[in-house]
Amino acid sequence: MPSTQNLEYEQGAALTHKQRERLAFIDFQLYFLGELRRSDLMERFGISPVVATRTIAQYLSLAPGNCKLDKQKIYRPTPEFKPWHTHSARQALATLAQGLTLSLGHDQGPLLSCELPSELSMPKVEILALVARAIHQGKVIKIRYVSFSSGETEREIIPFALVSNRVRWHVRAFDRKNEKFLDFVLRRILSASILEDDEIAKHESAVADSEWNRIINLELIPHPSLKRPEVVLLDYDMPDGVLRVDVRAANVGYLMKLWAIDCSPDHSASKENKEEFHLWLRDPLSIYGAPSVTLAPGYISPTLAKAS
């Protein structure tokens, strides 16, 4: 029996590019979202109901047993589902996060000479698919997870958003073990399964995550230690000298670290390396209480500042 990686090539070698694109879309919908409607194909490709039905039938002939039609006329992946298309985590995340068109090739080059930094850690595609499906369908998942503080543990979580800090991807979720909302690094999830019949309580849903729903209005200005602040004004298009950015409180620490923002109250984080920080958070109190605030460069809690 051919491996999953070879199924598409061996069974679909005679397909046209247009056919392969449609079939890969079906495969993606089933794998990462856990559902496919005939209307999804019609809207995505501008095809008629007859052509959409024929395309689904073609997919089922190439990947028999991968999905079944339920009472709501929605195709669902079966427990025996095996991807027909070889999905990469990088392409899947681009499709999920930005709505980019699913690419069929893995060696397509840029239109111009460009160099983009790679994320150092990409999730396993099978874990990403299950987590994405749970987010899309509003399901509880049971995971085996490894952390620095607790080692390997089994947890039940309710995921609702994927987040990237440009180094690795994590999922924002309610953790029933700790009874609070936390960030789980996708790469640290060893295994996962969807608990189909578990109901989600209101306090476990995204609407109850106060730090996710709290939007912080940041005011960033050129760092006071810079000799030529006018350069920074040009870099960030700051005609009035202030860059205003809205971020979720749950993510603010990650972003301050990623953007290299000096968050010290006296803009002193730049003493060791004066070239590292181009921007300073004008009001460090604005990020007080955010869960990831300890990651913010130079940040000092107001309580500690008073004590010193």
Automatic annotation (TrEMBL):
Segments forming domain WYL: 126-192
Coiled-coil spans in chain: none
InterPro entries referenced in this protein's UniProt entry, alphabetically: CapW-like (IPR016634), CapW_CTD (IPR059020), CBASS_pafABC_assoc_protein (IPR051534), WHD_CapW (IPR059019), WYL_dom (IPR026881)
Domain DNA-binding transcriptional repressor CapW C-terminal dimerisation as annotated: residue spans: 216-284
Domain annotation DNA-binding transcriptional repressor CapW winged helix-turn-helix: ranges: 19-89
PANTHER family per record: PROTEIN PAFB (PTHR34580:SF3), PTHR34580
Protein name: WYL domain-containing protein
